[in-house]
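A further point concerns the way the authors explain their paired sequence and structure data. For illustration, here is how one protein appears when written out as sequence plus structure tokens:
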Amino acid sequence: MSRYEPTILLIEDDLGDIELAGELLKENLPRLKLSSVRSGSEAINYLKSNEPPDLILLDLNLPGINGRRLLVEIKGEQSLACIPVIVLSTSVSERDIRDSYMSGANCYIRKPMGLEGYRKVARLIADFWFGLAELPTG
């Protein structure tokens, strides 16, 4: 992997999804620094008060400030706009997919069903974003 200690911010309101995603991502990125928040407002506070992560995983359906609005805010903020954002959602709506890309999402992944599906997604995220892709630093 190209990064010694990759950082990911997981913005997800479901505790089970947070735990599963964290465990599976760390299988593929043992030195991963994973942070998670459970709402859009927590995400804004995190991004304002911490070093920017290398990658953001964003659920669309969040309490309060939803993921759609949060994506627009992240991509509209000059200091955050270059952080790749992967939308990870259960929505299969063509409108949600299109709107996510129009708002600056770098990728849209439908949340998988079952452990093996999650394992595959975690491996592919690790391989592509931290093995193949060049990410901005600082």
Notes: The helical segments are 15-28, 40-49, 67-76, 94-102, 115-132. The domain at 7-131 is CATH 3.40.50.2300 (Rossmann fold). The mean pLDDT is 94. Residues 115-132 form the longest helix (18 residues).
